[in-house]
Design goal:
33% helix
């Protein structure tokens, strides 16, 4: 079991490199893959790249964002390393783990499961603790103390909740079509019931809208939260409900830029269209 990351692919893009790695995760109890996009080498060998974590949505792997978003062009020019982990443990052969597309494999929801059957689903600790430590110990060209986080759909949920629970670890957050109130949508209710049990009080710490009301330290929010949402997204009204989060931000007096984009759906065509704005949003925060 190789805990240290082993490079399994590399491809040059915009002067930098997309590199994919495999390692054994003690947190999840299985082998995991992740991508890093390294920008072109800086003029000084002592320079370290700030890191921007991307959390993907339901059914995705660490490959979707790297192949489809086009984020590398702006990351290259801004000198930011992109980190794209997978969305759940894989290969554990837990009964029922692949029975549905919105739960189990490919659907870790970036939480720490408390129910014994799903004890390996500890994606929150993997993203917040294990992966940054792994990067810090094995990639000296990365400065993991300068980090921001963003994501799409389930990954937007993950980015928002992780940011709000760790304001000391991330400079900024943004999201595309995030699941902002999983307590009140079918995706969240299904996942939380299975991973966390029936007590809804245990769900609130993984709900961005609830966190806005629960946590009292929001005067520490360093940058405006940016959310892009397609108006033609078929999941808008029953799963995503961005206005719930908008209302919570207003009550907490937290700066939020929620942009409803006419004609856009839930796909990577939408993400690729506005990805530059998000990279620049984080670049500004990371350079402060």
């Amino acid at each position: 079991m190789e805990i240290k990351p082993v490079e399994i692919s590399s491809s040059k893009m915009f002067g930098g490199y997309n590199k994919r790695y495999k390692h054994y995760s003690p947190t999840l109890g299985c082998s995991m893959t992740f991508h890093i996009y390294f920008p072109p080498p800086p003029p000084s060998s002592s320079h370290k790249f700030a890191v921007l974590y991307w959390l993907s949505g339901l059914t995705c792997t660490d490959e979707n964002f790297i192949a489809k978003s086009g984020a590398q062009r702006v990351a290259s020019s801004e000198g930011i390393a992109l980190i794209a982990p997978d969305t759940s443990p894989r290969g554990l052969n837990v009964e029922g783990e692949a029975d549905s597309w919105d739960f189990g494999v490919g659907a870790g929801f970036y939480l720490n499961a408390t129910q014994d059957k799903w004890k390996n689903w500890q994606m929150y600790d993997y993203v917040v603790k294990e992966l940054p430590q792994l990067l810090s110990e094995n990639f000296p060209q990365l400065d993991t103390t300068r980090a921001s986080i963003f994501g799409h759909s389930m990954g937007g949920h993950g980015a928002l909740t992780i940011y709000l629970k760790n304001l000391d670890k991330y400079k900024s957050v943004s999201a595309f079509s995030p699941v902002v109130n999983p307590l009140n949508c079918p995706w969240g209710q299904k996942a939380f019931t299975n991973y966390l049990g029936a007590n809804k009080a245990d769900w609130e710490v993984y709900d961005a809208t609830c966190l806005m009301a629960l946590i009292s330290k929001f005067n520490d929010v360093r940058a405006t939260i940016l959310i892009d949402q397609g108006e033609d997204d078929k999941f808008l009204h029953d799963q995503l409900m961005p206005h719930k989060f908008e209302e919570a931000c207003k009550k907490a007096k937290v700066p939020l830029l929620l942009r409803l984009q006419p004609g856009y759906d839930h796909s990577y065509y939408f993400i690729a269209t506005f990805i530059e704005d998000h990279i620049l949003h984080h670049a500004q925060a990371l350079k402060l």
